[in-house]
C-alpha cells in the first residue's frame, strides 16, 4: 500500500542531553509526545537543528530508533540520513527503514565543494539502492547546493519523492515547482526557512520543516491550517509573529543555541550542547532569554 504524501509541519527537533553530555532518552521521548500532542504533522530528527554532525554514527542511529519507537506511527518520521560517504548514507537508509521511518532527508555531501554532476551522481547512487523514500535537502549555507537542473534530473527517480529547501529563496522555489511538478505531480516541496512559511505555502509547497516548530508548534500548525483554509490575512498576522520570534532566537547565539534555549523555556531540559560556549555566547543567550520568553508567552496566550 503506498504511503500518504508527506505534508504539513515536520519538526526538525533538538536532542536533550544529560549532565554527562549523553542522549537523555526519557526527556527525548517526553518531548516527542509533547510535539505530537501540540499538533505537528511529523518529526524530523537528525537535521541541522538536531545537530546531527555532533553525534556519532551509533548515536544518530539511536536517536532515530527512539523517535520512531515513541512516535509509534502517530505521525511520520522523516529521518536525517546524511553520512560522510554514499556507502554509509545508504547503510543509514537501510537502518532507518527497518526502524519504521517514513522517509529520509539527505543533504549534499558537506565539506568538499562538488560540481552539479557530482551532486547528481551522489543522489543517483542513493536512489538506486535505498529501500526507503528519499527527500533531497538543499541547504546552501552548509553544503553543496542542489541546483534546478540537478533537481529535475533527480526527480526522474521514483525513490526520490521530494525536497526540503532551506535557502529561503521564494523565487527559486517557484521556479523549482514550475519545472518539476509537471514531470512529477506527486513530488513534495517543503520549505525549511521559517520566515517565509506562508508565501512558500501559497507558492505551492506542501509544508515546512522549521526549527521554531520545536518551540511554538501551536503557532506553526495554526499558520499552516489558516493558509490551507484560505484565511490568508490571519495567516500573515501569525507569520509576522513567527518571523519576530525566529529573528530573536536565531540571533541569540550561534545556531542552534538560541533554539536550545527557546525549547528549554517550554519546560524541557535540553542540557548543555557539545559545542563549548564562549563567555560572549553565554552573555548573548542570557540577554535574550527574557525577550524570547515574553514572545513565547504571548504566542501561547493567543494560540
CATH superfamily of the domain at 8-214: Aldolase class I
Number of contiguous helices: 11
Q: What oligomeric state is this? A: single chain
CATH topology name of the domain at 8-214, in short, is: TIM Barrel
How many strands in all? 8
* Shape, principal axes of CA atoms: globular
Give the SSE string. Answer: EHEHEHEHEHEHEHEHHHH
Unreliable residue stretches: none
Structural class by helix and strand composition: alpha/beta
Mean pLDDT: 96
Q: What about the largest sheet?
A: 8 strands, parallel
Rg over C-alpha atoms, rounded to the nearest angstrom: 18 Å
Query: What proportion of the residues form beta strands (DSSP E)?
Result: 5-15%
CATH class type of the domain at 8-214: Alpha Beta
Task: Provide the helix percentage.
Answer: 40-55%
Which strands sit side by side, in order, in the main sheet? 2-1-8-7-6-5-4-3
Please identify, by name, the CATH architecture of the domain at 8-214.
Answer: Alpha-Beta Barrel
- Termini separation: 37 Å
Amino acid at each position: 500500500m503506498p504511503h500518504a504524501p508527506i505534508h504539513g509541519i515536520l519538526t526538525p527537533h533538538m536532542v536533550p542531553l544529560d549532565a554527562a553530555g549523553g542522549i537523555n532518552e526519557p526527556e527525548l521521548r517526553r518531548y516527542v509526545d509533547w510535539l505530537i500532542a501540540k499538533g505537528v504533522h511529523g518529526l524530523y530528527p537528525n537535521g541541522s537543528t538536531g545537530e546531527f554532525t555532533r553525534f556519532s554514527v551509533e548515536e544518530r542511529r539511536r536517536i532515530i530508533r527512539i523517535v520512531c519507537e515513541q512516535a509509534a506511527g502517530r505521525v511520520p518520521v522523516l529521518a536525517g540520513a546524511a553520512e560522510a560517504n554514499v556507502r554509509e548514507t545508504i547503510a543509514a537508509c537501510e537502518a532507518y527503514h527497518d526502524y519504521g521511518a517514513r522517509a529520509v532527508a539527505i543533504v549534499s555531501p558537506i565539506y568538499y565543494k562538488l560540481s552539479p554532476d557530482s551532486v547528481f551522481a551522489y543522489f543517483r547512487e542513493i536512489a538506486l539502492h535505498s529501500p526507503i523514500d528519499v527527500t533531497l535537502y538543499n541547504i546552501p549555507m552548509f553544503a553543496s547546493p542542489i541546483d534546478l537542473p540537478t533537481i529535475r534530473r533527480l526527480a526522474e527517480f521514483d525513490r526520490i519523492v521530494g525536497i526540503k529547501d532551506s535557502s529561503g529563496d521564494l523565487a527559486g522555489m517557484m521556479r523549482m515547482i514550475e519545472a518539476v511538478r509537471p514531470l512529477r505531480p506527486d513530488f513534495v516541496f517543503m520549505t525549511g526557512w521559517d520566515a517565509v512559511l506562508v508565501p512558500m505555502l501559497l507558492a505551492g509547497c506542501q509544508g515546512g520543516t522549521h526549527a521554531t516548530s520545536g518551540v511554538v508548534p501551536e503557532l506553526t500548525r495554526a499558520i499552516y491550517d489558516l493558509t490551507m483554509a484560505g484565511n490568508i490575512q490571519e495567516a500573515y498576522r501569525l507569520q509576522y509573529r513567527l518571523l519576530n520570534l525566529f529573528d530573536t532566537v536565531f540571533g541569540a547565539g550561534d545556531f542552534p543555541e538560541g533554539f536550545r534555549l527557546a525549547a528549554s523555556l517550554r519546560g524541557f531540559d535540553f542540557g548543555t550542547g557539545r559545542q563549548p560556549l564562549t563567555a560572549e555566547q553565554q552573555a548573548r543567550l542570557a540577554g535574550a532569554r527574557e525577550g524570547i520568553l515574553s514572545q513565547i508567552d504571548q504566542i501561547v496566550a493567543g494560540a
